[in-house]
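Quarterly update, task 2.4: magnesium ion-bound model.
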Amino acid sequence: MRRAVLLFDIDGTLLTFRGPSPGPGRTAMARASIELFGADHTAGLRFAGGTDLSLARAIATAASVMALEEARQALLARYTAYLEEELSRRPYVPLGDVHGTVVWAKSAGHRVALATGNLREGAAIKLRSAGLHELFPLEGGGFGGDHEARADFVRAAIEAAAGHGEPIVIGDTDADVAAARATGARVIGVATSPAACEELAAADARRGCGASLRAAIEALLR
Ligand SMILES: [Mg+2]
């Protein structure tokens, strides 16, 4: 089997929350919005497939603040603090056999990295919450706190792992598929709900619907 660099999205791909929506991430962002701007400006925003920088821009813009960049950084700092608080009460859980898949991938000679819309710090907090922090490196990779557009941090993650194998993006939304295609990387769509399955099918992604992620990786590299 050829060697690959597996670039993992986090939310909806590696982990999820239990209980009713909104989940801990959206709740933390809403609390930060209320604290800083006096209102919840997250209504109507799609968080899945988004990046923290783009979400913070949308919220700060909706709040009509003048100093957009300062407001955005302040919002993300408060979001991170609230995220930790929310997760202490309602931790994330891994989706499927993440541990087994990553251990297998590393033993098969593949490199594992993150390509996520989260801030690097937010990624660390979320992975720790789900008990997955020892599986994924926080150095290298691509993060939504460094690049506002998904394709840009996917490209950064690919460049950081250059020479270590064929890049394969693994994500759960059409935004993951589009970003992968913009960089020329192949993509595996991980669908954990019927709606996600439909969205990935519409984006024409190779899907992990119903099949194991490991099987999808092996099929792609065969
Ligand atoms: Mg996702």
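Highlight for this quarter: The longest helix spans residues 68-89.
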